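Feature request disguised as a bug: please show the residue count (262) next to rRNA methyltransferase in the output. Example input:
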Amino acid sequence: MSDTPTAARPETAGVVNPPVIILIEPQLGDNIGKAARAMLNCGLVDLRLVRPRDGWPNERATANASGADIVIDNTKVFEHEDDALADLNRIYVTTARTRDAVKPVFTPRGLAPEMRANIGKGEKIGVMFGPERTGVRNEHIAMADAVVTVPLNPGFTSLNLAQAVLLIGYEWWQAGVNVPDYQMMMNDSFPAAHDEVARMLAHLEYELDESGFFRVEAKRPAMERNIRNIFNRMSLTHQEVQTIRGMVSAMRGAKHKPKPKT
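Example output, currently without the count:
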């Protein structure tokens, strides 16, 4: 994860109309910019501001967006919440506090498939965030179809604006991409064949035997198993096997050189 800006592209994970992000009375341009950056990280490009305290456009927002210009340049500003929400079919509001209203409550992970299903039906979706200092008010919750609450440490649930946007956006993005939870980065190499590893181990064990490593014959089978377990657990590449064999050969040659003075 880098702070270096890269060429921004409006990738939306195959969704024509990704969710709209609505910020109610955002206070600092810095926070708007960081939220815009978080949005584009997750393929969200439609940002709407309701009564931004410091006006718009805002140089601090552009600076903190770190290249998410497509979000900043297309940001829409509204004086009233109703106007910002007018074209949306379904609205979700984020809050950490329990309210009196009876509403469905989603976690960000539960919300993501819900939003994708509704967008798949042709609906336009929005997620609303309140002011940094106070969060959303009761009237904002009344405007929404459902509430979104992030399950965090009950003793400290405070999030800054960009963090909140990122949590919603991240789950949205992950619900639409197929990325394995684990993969080995191979670069230009490829996994070593079983026979390659077996020959490397035979080479290593031969040299260890020649050097007197297996001093106690009764312990030799267990020691060999341990050595094989170590290397087989590594998922070695072809290049790594060649490097290890070169190291073993080099050490054999070094045995015939005089030892350096200490």
